[in-house]
Amino acid sequence: MVKDTALYDLLGVKPEASDAEIKKAYRKKAMENHPDKNPGDAEAGERFQAIANAYEILSNSTSRESYDNFGSTSTSGGMPGGPDVDMDDIFASMFGGAFGADPFAGPGAGGRRGRSSRPRRGRDEIVDYEVTLEDLFKGKTVSLMLEKNIICGTCEGHGGKPGTKPKTCVRCDGKGSIMMSRQVGPGLIGQMPTVCPECDGEGVKIREKDRCKKCKGAKVVKTKKRVEIHIEKGMRDGQRIVLEGEGDQEPGVTPGNLIFALRLLPHPTFQVAHPDLSTTITLTLSEALLGFSRVVLTHLDGRGVHVSVQAGERVVQPGETMVLRGEGMWVGGRVGRAGERGDLYVRCEVEMPSTHWIKGADWEALEKLLPPRRPDLQPRPEVVDEAEFEHGDMANFGKSHRGFEDTRRAGS
Questions:
Q1: Residue from 14, 50, 15 nearest 29 by CA
Q2: Is a pLDDT exceeding 70 seen at residue 146?
Q3: How many C-beta neighbours within 10 Å does residue 25 have?
Q4: Burial of residue 359 (number of CB atoms within 10 Å: 0-12, 13-18, 19+)
Q5: Short-list 8, 106, 108, CA closest to 59
């Protein structure tokens, strides 16, 4: 009985599966989870790496036996050889094929030895962009100056001077990868492919004297470009704005996307639970008792919001919530019908008069107007002590005897 089945589960086979069944399952899983087959799925690469790692261990009889006996401390530790391995190279080497042919390409497709012929796609770059609640409510267009890599115009991405040719990398013999030792189990070392550090996986190198003077052999140069991002009304925290193909350029690689992730800054007045808003207003005791008609707040677009409560209609209680329909955030077309808005929830706090005010008031006249005072607590306790009070602060709650305890501890 095997100690751990996690790697078998990744491939969807039973622990007693034959080598042929494991290879067949790996082919199927790898094709289903290859990043190029799952554009826009950020987790596809991680799944593909985990599947490749599982196959590397289970396809070798020695490492499989070690795994069956001892298990593994990690079943998702990434692609064999580390995170910088070109997944197309490993994918091609696992499937075999003449000179690393692309398993997804049609008949006759091929490429340089050990490299996939299929054009690769650059990684998407995600940039956090801070926005205010006003930006999301009103919408906004932002112009930004960004620095990015573009193909060198002098050598056209070749990296060398005109007329020069790159030389085959001696270390990897043009394959772009070399075999490195890696622990695959307790006391077990296996050979795994990893990107060649001499040529960075290219399989070829340009001699220093032959390098392009502008890009110094890097094949790309930095440039600045102005881009615009459009924040639409009703967007929310965490939503992404994608600029297609605006990622860094590389020779032979389709540029990835530049993605702006909106990060909402805290607002001093409003809170948002899309598409609703909430805020708090303060009423005087007179307004709570006798009603009011005034502008109670300034909205996110600068408008004043007027609310009326007729005298004698009702008493606004402390902590009561009023709902202003249609005064919330805008709703985008993907969530609801464009042009709709959520609601604004207004919590009412009642401010009591000051001591200065009460000292100058006509107490007797006021007492006749207000509801009667409450009587003693009933049933009245047999023993009643008269307690003195003073103004306090709840910040000191639980600290009343700290000084006493410290004094007692020092004297003991």
A1: 50
A2: yes
A3: 20
A4: exposed
A5: 8
By CB atoms closer than 10 A (0-12, 13-18, 19+), residue 326 is exposed
- Burial of 105 by CB count in 10 Å (0-12 exposed, 13-18 middle, 19+ buried)? middle
- Both tokens assigned to 59: 């396809």
Tell which residue, 283, 275, 295, 286, has the closest CA to residue 321. 283
Would the pTM of this model clear 0.70, i.e. be above it?
Answer: no
Q: How far apart are CA 295 and CA 231, in angstroms?
A: 29
Whether 189 contacts 173, CB under 8 Å: no
* Average pLDDT for 365-377: 89
Token pair 């401390």 in the structure block, residue: 73
CB 278 within 8 A of CB 256: no
Q: Distance between CA 179 and CA 191 in Å, rounded?
A: 6
Find residue 272's DSSP bridge partners. Answer: 277
Q: Tokens representing 109?
A: 């497709």
Q: How far is CA 318 from CA 43, 278, 307, 322, in A?
A: 49, 16, 17, 12
Q: Which two tokens stand for residue 169?
A: 């990398």
DSSP sequence for 81-117: T-TTS-HHHHHHHHH--TTS--TTS-TT---STTS--
Quote the CA–CA distance of 332 and 32 in Å, as a whole number: 33
Report the chain's mean pLDDT, rounded to a whole number. 82
210 φ/ψ angles, rounded to the nearest 5 degrees: -95, 0
Query: Beta strand pairing status for 167-168 and 177-185?
Result: unpaired
Start-end of H helices in 125-228: 133-138
Q: How many CB atoms lie within 10 A of CB 57?
A: 20
**Residue 118 DSSP label:** S
Q: Give per-residue pLDDT as tens, 337-346.
A: 556 899 999 9
Residue 124, classified by CB atoms within 10 Å of its CB into exposed (0-12), middle (13-18) or buried (19+), is middle
Around Cβ 104, how many Cβ atoms within 10 Å? 15
Q: What's the sign of the alpha-carbon dihedral 66, 67, 71, 76? A: positive
Alpha-carbon separation of residue 69 from 5, 22, 63, 208 (angstroms): 11, 18, 10, 51
CA distances from residue 101 to 88, 105, 113, 114 in whole angstroms, order as listed: 10, 8, 9, 8
CA distance 357 to 369: 17
What stretch of H or E contains 193? strand 188-195
Model confidence pLDDT, tens digit, residues 295-316: 999 999 999 999 999 998 999 9
Cβ–Cβ < 8 Å for 2, 58: no
